[in-house]
């Protein structure tokens, strides 16, 4: 399958390449390039391989990069981290919504200013709301008021007010968020599990087709593809399920 023949809905899939090795990530990216719409590189890869590793994986892939580093610190530090990430040309970059309004604003301003200074495209900033590995009990244990859906909505609304482009949420919150947030607000959605895949540590999950029907813009899918015996076949199967 080539980018020209893959289903338009498969373009929504960002495959999470959670590996500490450049060679493994490059190999998977090359094999999956015709079956997914983008690559997600996150903490495991970045801590092991750094910015050079990111460049090595993305330079030949010809796919948009979702750089999922989930920045969470004081505003000045997060602004600096965002500025350092801009030259890697991510299409999407994450911060934690719970870092608060000033941190979110600092991140948004830094992305816009640094992209303009370098003459490169501005990354879309996404704020992680409540991690998809957390359930109601986990939220209560860290002192956050539930239900989960309400906490996600509070954080997503704060995010939108602070000038951030979108949020990361579970598929279960997509439909309610669509009713509350402005049109064009991006929803990037992990916690995706085809009926044939194990949930693992993910608690708030739906199938790819259910997430898209609810209104997800992009699906983040890792292990159901990357841990499959045949990752390309798994990605195509998910693409076929999306129609
Ligand atoms: O709330 C969140 C935020 C980010 N993620 C990331 O998405 C992928 C999911 O991988 P699977 O193997 O499909 O579970 C992973 O890289 C997480 O860091 C998330 O799962 N939930």
From TrEMBL:
Residues annotated as catalytic: 68, 70, 73
Enzyme class at the top of the EC tree: lyase
Residues given in the record as substrate binding sites: 18, 40, 68-77, 132, 193, 202, 222-223
Coiled-coil ranges (or none): none
Pathway assignment: Pyrimidine metabolism; UMP biosynthesis via de novo pathway; UMP from orotate: step 2/2
SUPFAM superfamilies on file: Ribulose-phoshate binding barrel (SSF51366)
Function text: Catalyzes the decarboxylation of orotidine 5'-monophosphate (OMP) to uridine 5'-monophosphate (UMP).
Family: Belongs to the OMP decarboxylase family. Type 1 subfamily.
Reactions performed catalytically: orotidine 5'-phosphate + H(+) = UMP + CO2
Gene Ontology annotations for the cellular component aspect, listed alphabetically: cytosol
Single Gene Ontology MF annotation: orotidine-5'-phosphate decarboxylase activity
CDD domains in the record: OMP_decarboxylase_like
Entry annotated with the keyword Transcription: no
Name of this chain's protein: Orotidine 5'-phosphate decarboxylase
EC number: 4.1.1.23
UniProt entry tagged with the keyword Lyase: yes
Residue span, Orotidine 5'-phosphate decarboxylase domain: 12-238
GO aspect biological process, one term: 'de novo' UMP biosynthetic process
PROSITE patterns reported for this sequence: OMPDECASE
UniProt keyword terms in alphabetical order: Decarboxylase, Lyase, Pyrimidine biosynthesis
Subunit structure: Homodimer.
InterPro entries registered for this protein in UniProt: Aldolase_TIM, OMPdecase, OMPdecase_AS, OMPdecase_bac, OMPdeCOase_dom, RibuloseP-bd_barrel
């Amino acid at each position: 399958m080539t980018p020209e023949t893959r289903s338009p809905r498969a373009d929504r899939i960002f495959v999470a390449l959670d590996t500490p090795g450049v060679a493994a990530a490059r190999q998977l990216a090359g094999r999956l390039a015709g079956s997914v719409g983008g690559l997600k590189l996150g903490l495991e890869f970045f801590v092991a391989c750094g910015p050079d590793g990111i460049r090595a994986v993305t330079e030949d892939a010809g796919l948009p990069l979702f750089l999922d580093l989930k920045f969470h610190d004081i505003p000045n530090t997060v602004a600096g981290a965002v500025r350092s990430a801009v030259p890697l040309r991510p299409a999407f970059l994450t911060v934690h919504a719970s870092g608060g309004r000033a941190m979110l604003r600092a991140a948004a301003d830094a992305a816009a200013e640094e992209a303009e200074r370098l003459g490169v495209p501005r990354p879309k900033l996404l704020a992680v709301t409540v991690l998809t590995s957390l359930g109601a009990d986990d939220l209560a244990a860290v002192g956050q008021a539930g239900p989960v859906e309400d906490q996600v909505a509070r954080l997503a609304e704060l995010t939108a007010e602070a000038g951030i482009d979108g949020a990361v949420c579970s598929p279960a919150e997509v439909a309610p968020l669509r009713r509350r947030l402005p049109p064009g607000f991006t929803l990037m959605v992990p916690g995706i599990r085809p009926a044939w895949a194990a949930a693992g540590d993910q608690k708030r999950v739906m199938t790819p087709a259910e997430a898209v029907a609810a209104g997800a813009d992009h699906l983040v899918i890792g292990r159901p593809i990357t841990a499959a015996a045949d990752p390309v076949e798994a990605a195509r199967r998910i693409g076929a399920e999306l129609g």
